[in-house]
Amino acid sequence: MASERKTSEERTRERLIDLAAEFYDQFDAGEIPHMTLPTRTKSNIEYDEDANVWVYGDRTSKRSANSVRGARKLLKAAYTIEFLARQLDEDRSSTLRELYYISESWDNEEAHFSDQDESNKLIEDLEIVSEVKREDFHMRPEESGAKLMGPLKIREQTNRGDREIHCQLDVGQGGYQIPNNPDTIEFLEHDVEFVMCVETGGMRDRLVENGFDDDYNALVVHLGGQPARATRRITKRLHDELDLPVVVFTDGDPWSYRIFGSVAYGSIKSAHLSEYLATPEAKFVGIQPQDIVDYDLPTDPLADSDINALQSELEDPRFMSDYWTEQIELQLDIGKKAEQQALASRGLDFVTDEYLPTRLDEMGII
Q1: For residue 208, which of 174, 244, 167, 259 has the smallest C-alpha distance?
Q2: Does the active-site annotation cover 79?
Q3: What HAMAP family does the record tag this protein with (predicted)?
Q4: Choice among 37-46, 60-69, 145-154, 211-220 with the minimum mean pLDDT
Q5: Which domains, from first to last, does the chain contain?
Q6: Of 110, 196, 246, 284, which shows the fewest CB atoms inside 10 Å?
Q7: To the nearest whole number, what is the mean pLDDT of the chain?
Q8: 64 Cα distance to chain centroid
C-alpha cells in the first residue's frame, strides 16, 4: 500500500510540473500563456443520463495572460503549483484555509490571494486541468470529516503507520471519523447489510443509541447536512466495492432532497468529479411528504423559497420520476415540511421500531 501511495504522489507531482511546463512552452513558442478550462456555469452543466450524474458540457473558457487580470491569475496558479509540488516532496499537507494565508508569504505581492474563495477556486481549476483530485495534492478541507458506525473493519493509512479499526468495537458512541481522503482506507471484513446515510446529527445519534446498526447490520453514515466530498466518496466506495445498497434519510424539505441528489447524482460545484463521488443507485428513504400526511407529523409551513425550490426540482433531471413528481406535488399541495426529529412525536423508538423497518421493507432493503 505504501508503494502504491508513493507512486500516486509521484504521478500527482508530475502532473503539476507538466502544467507549469505548459506555461514555459507557451512562452518559448512566443504564445501568450493560457489555461483552458470547462466553463463553470450552470448553463454548462449537463445531466449524463447514461451515468446518472452531473458533468461539464463542451463549452470552455480560457485563462490568458493577455490582460493584467488574466496574468495575475496565471501567476497565482504558478506559485500555487510550486507550493503543491514542494508539499508533496516533503510529504506534508495543508488546509484550504492555510493556503490562503500561505500566499501572504510569497515574495511577489501580485501572487497573494485576495480572499479564500479565490484560492479555493484555483485549487478546483488545478483539479480540472490536471485531472488530479485535491486530496492527492494533500489539500484538506477545514471541516472535520463525518462519522460512521457499523459492523465494518478497516485498515487506514496514517502518517504514523497503518492501523486496523472496527467501526463498532473500536470506537465510542461518536463512531469512526472519515479521513479527508477515504482512498487511504482498505475494507478488511464486514457484516454490513446496507448503508444508511443520515442528514442530521440528532437522528444519527438516535439510531446509534437505539442500536439500529446492531439490529439491522446497518452502517450508519452521518452526512452532517450537505455532505463533504470525503463522505460522498466513501459512500460510493462502500456501494461499488462491497456491493452494498445505499439509502439516504433526510428531513422532508426541498433542500434535504438536494442533499439526497448530491449523494446520488453529484453536485454542480463538483461536476468534474461526479463519477468519483456520486452513487446513482442510492435510494431515498424519507422523510417523504406522504409521511407527513400518513403520520400526521409536526410541521412548519413552506416558505416562498421552499415553494420556489420545489417547483425548480420538478424541472430538475435528478427528480424527473413518477415518485418524485408525486411527492413534490403533494408537498406543494399540503404546503408543509417536516424534520426527521418530528418522528419523535410518536415516541423516541418509533423511528427505529416502526418507521425505518417499514420503509426499508417496502424498498426491498431488509
Answers
A1: 174
A2: no
A3: Top6A
A4: 37-46
A5: 2-140 (1.10.10.10), 147-362 (3.40.1360.10)
A6: 110
A7: 88
A8: 31
Q: How far apart are CA 289 and CA 253, in angstroms?
A: 8
d(CA 39, CA 45): 9
Which parts of the chain are beta strand (E)? 34-38, 45-48, 53-56, 60-64, 94-95, 139-140, 147-149, 152-156, 163-166, 176-177, 185-190, 194-198, 218-222, 246-249, 283-286, 300-301, 336-337
Amino acid at 366: I
Q: In whole angstroms, what is the distance from residue 187 CA to residue 314 CA?
A: 38
Rounded Cα–Cα distance for residues 284 and 266 (Å): 15
Q: Which three cell numbers stand for residue 271?
A: 461536476
Give the pLDDT band of residue 143 (cuts 50, 70, 90). Answer: low
Grid coordinates given for 220: 450508519
- Measured between alpha carbons, how far is 194 from 217 in angstroms, rounded to an integer? 7
Whether 251 has a binding-site annotation, put simply, is yes
Rounded-to-integer distance, Cα 301 and Cα 192, Å: 38
Catalytic residue among 101, 265, 276, 323: 101
What is the grid cell recorded at 311? Answer: 417547483
The reported pLDDT for the residue numbered 66 is 83
pTM for the structure as a whole:
0.78
- Say if residues 142 and 95 touch (Cβ distance below 8 Å): yes
CB 236 within 8 A of CB 278: yes
Task: Summarize pLDDT for 149-160 with one digit per residue, the tens.
Answer: 999 999 998 777
First vs last Cα of the chain: how many Å apart?
35
